[in-house]
Amino acid sequence: MVRWTTAPPAQRTTGGNVIHDVASGCASSTPFGSNSSSRTDDARDRSRSRKETRSMSISRRRALTLASLFVASPLLDTESRAEPAASVPGAASFDMATFSATSGGDADAAFAKALAAAAKAAADASKAGPVHIVLNLEKNASYRIKRPLAFRQFHGFELNGNGAQLINTTRSGTLTISGCNRLTVRDLTIDYDPLPFTQGTITAFDKQAVDITVKVDPGYPDDAALLATFTDGFFKVMDRHNRALKTGARDFLSPAHATRISDGLIKVHLRWSANDRFPSQLPIAAGDVVTIANSGAHAIAIDSSFATSLIDLKLLASPGMGIIENGGEGSMMLQKVSVVPGPRPKGATADRLISTNSDGSHFTAVAHGPTMEDCSFANTSDDAVNVHGFYYYVVAKPAPRRFLLSPKWDIGLAAGDDIESCDHATFRSLGRGKVAQLTKRHAPELKAKIAQLWKNRSPTTQPDLIYDVVLQQDLPLKVGDAVTSLTHIGSGATVLRCSFHACGRVLMKAPNAVVENCQFTFSTGVALQAGSDIGFWSESGFADNLVFRNNRFSHCVNGANELTSGSGTLGAIYVGMVPPEGAKGFQDNFQNRRVIIEGNHIDDSYIYAIFVSNADGAKIAGNVIGQTFLRGNAFGAGELFHIKPDSAIFVGRARNIEISNNVVAHGRIATTAVAIDPSCDKRTVHQASNRLT
What we know:
mainly beta, Elongation Factor Tu (Ef-tu), domain 3, 4 domains, seven-stranded antiparallel β-sheet, six-stranded antiparallel barrel, 48 strands, 37% strand, globular, disordered N terminus
């Protein structure tokens, strides 16, 4: 049943209860992911925007499961983590065929037995020191499961998929990893049957464009259980040819409920009119292709773990986020991971247009950010990657060095953490410090004060929870100011040689981040973004020691939202900040520090190619930029900052900036290569050899 090896196990033929072989080929590309909140001068647009952000807030609230924190440890060498654990002397190897043969075809029962046996072997062997445990699935097998595979307190464990598939039949989570150390999942495909979303074609809609009749594509679900979930989430107009959001469509609409009219025909009631438009938004029409999804359980959920590795893994659908990691030491490695739409379901004549119903991957308050190498993301309904910490708002200052803080989630700040502060008016740092003590308590008497701090933001999930914090040294913080942990913020996130098609953003809010040699096509909103979102999501922090280098972009920001007068995220590459609702102009800070944007190729952008603001020390060099503002109209873009676009590169409220050797194509809007806002310290902004062609 268990074998102790000194060499990798030989290839084994399949045996036991293999259900059937399933092709693992993947369809490529499409929908969205922007969480932009379009704040326009027009009250109607502001109202619609608030509805959009509220719906996004609900989805993300479902998204985050809270986690405890571990003490930070040194990063592991990623090359050694990529090696099969079975090659380590003394590894214990289990074969899934053994457990399948005694489980009567019940994959859930077989996995329960296998994981219990692995846990027992690990416990027995660990008395003599650390041990590697490997569970080998049957080669190219397909396992239909109803419950997630749960890994708790596993250390040095490897799930070797051997090309197998896990087919989740209940639209629930598939893998949960909690409190684990150096756990590896490799050579595995995850899919869902039935699918957790649907898609089809608009056949009719009422005069208000609120009740939309959709003919569901053959082979895609319209069951009552799925329709009952459409109380929020995403309703998107798509382009089958590009497998992306239809250019000029709103980034997303949101369903309130859906009903089944007849076989393959449903009616979706939207939260607001699809044709209550801002100028950059195209109306819907009969014949438009749409996708409908809401965020639920996450396919792969990790918490309080260290050095988890996902290698050669294919994730073809998810009811919520694809991969989420909450808290702990982090240092996850993703190598050759594909989060892309799977093959056509049985009876289908059209490709899938969704991979994940929410973010493709999300890393919250981990000590060390992920390393992603040679991965592919396509058609994530929201952001492809988001790495961030959280802000904690000052409710009161009872004594010197002592602060009462309100968290959004009960995660991400601990005694011993280094912190940075943030002024509530300018968002400047008020100094750094260290948490000497932290205790938690519920304070219902402060509930009203706490609620006021979260007004016009994505609300706290902890309406009366207080972090009672004592700092080693005092900071000049007032009510409404914030702090963020510099210890649990995902520092060092690295994304190399990855591709992103028809996704939301790749968000690097953590310090010491690198995104290099990646490809972005048909990103719905900003393709690559860094900087604080203290304004709505309360996600930290500002860029610090950031590198965006040698990436390629094509047809990015093709949704309508970024071109509104309320949008401040205005580039295919954007480094800046998201201020609170109602803010106008560039905020009075230079908090993004040590930023390098160089060697990127940006073609056919629907907005600015590069937009940088609130920066102190940035280099924008050697970028090659094709056409920008591809629709020939800037619409409302720039109005938030009182600017009229006429360039491909824009810099606002910045100092100590080098802009050199950039080549920019002349266009209908871009008549100059670079524009510098008057809010910049122009004495320290240096330009050289930028060319308009």
